[in-house]
Amino acid sequence: MTDRVRIDLQPLGETFEIARGEPLRDALFARGVEFPCGGRGTCRGCRVRVAAGAPPPRPAESAALAPADLASGWRLACFLRADAPMTLEVAQWASTILADDTPFAFAPREGLGAAVDLGTTTLVAQLVDLATGRVLAVRSALNPQARHGADIMSRIQFATAPGGRKTLTAMIREEIGRMIGGLLDDRARHAPPGPLRDVAIVGNAAMHHLFGGIGVESLAAFPFEPAHAGPLEFPAGALGWDLPGDPPVRFLPCLGGFVGSDILAGILATRLHESADLVALADLGTNGEVVLGNRDRIWCASTAAGPAFEGARIGQGMRAATGAIAEVSVAGGAMRCRVLGGGDPRGICGSGLVDAVAAGLDLGWIEPGGRLADGAKAIPLAGDIVLSQADVRELQLAKGAIAAGFRILLARAGAEPAGVSRLHLAGAFGNYVSRASARRIGLLEFPLDAIRPAGNTALRGAKVALFERGGEAGAYADLRSRVEHVPLAADPRFQDRFAESMAFPPAPD
Asked: What total number of domains does the chain contain?
């Protein structure tokens, strides 16, 4: 008997071999399969269909999946082992990560710079010509830490276990170093890459700590403040990166709590801090951050929205990838679904979830309190995909947290939603979600014409930072002095605002 087992991935047409008896989790993660709960078997987010060679279901799988799904070969990837050859259907995990090519004003410098958006779920890196501002190469990847949990709190829980922080720090440093080396290799195929002068990285507070090798215990308990909010700087060689010129690697500073340098970068990218009018910014990724302000004063907060906007903790949820229901509309008294890539749906992503609930409200299938009408257990969407009562509740928790956060910031500013001239929606979810559906469910209470998708503002802001060497003595110190972090958990009004924001708005006349 051979000690190696063949695994076929369809319809990708990829094959690999792995030692008999080895877990498939790491090999599948490297090929795009996500494990939202960190491989604990509690979320069903890593469902894959074993088209051939399906093993007997484990007790946890029998409890998590319907008998019909089990009979069709569906299994949880976190439990799969290479006990025998098998064929897996994993097409639903191929996706595009949001980059950014938006022009911005800058003062030219010599050489090259690398900008990195270190997201909880995804990584994007760009090589920039500092003389022209032109993007020369782009690399993207899943954050390898995600195999230990998709959301921030799962990641922090792993990091506080013995050896966990060192593992996560080593993983992310190695991956980003590999990506930057790849950027230089990509450029070298067309022209000599030239000297790398600077590397700017942005990310949330947990990513800031884990990249820097800083303990995250302070982020795991009230009042959830970072152990070190300032900027981090390392020579590339100290991170184990063999880069020409040994450039400085800067991780931009946090703003407080779970509001990290990705939001500082968003402020720089949207120039919110230069606006005379009141402007808002929201990044509704794995963590939810909201900002409100102008050139005089800025308030920011992070909300425990959970990962529903990225399809996690939803019964048949998935990222915005091939096979995901991404749009739902109402036609002829029924729901009509659009599936990314066409074909049969394999799940529903965040934008589709918001659309589906908005459509259910308009059709009267979902009550304003969130209960499915007429005692229904689920709403059929397309194929075998349904919207369950638990899914609606999960979205209510997420949207209630975001709406309540904005209400608290508006109260601090003494303003109403109608007084906000523009709301920048950052990130992939903000780029694709329907503004009308977001308003219909009460996620965003601002005027529809004020809500604008802003793309990857974290990455754009990291590029802006490549041209601003003032650091703490310059623009960031001045900007941070105008920013007030509002810890929502300590605000006595938050729970009341959160409870009010859970309900859906009544149907418009």
From this structure: 1
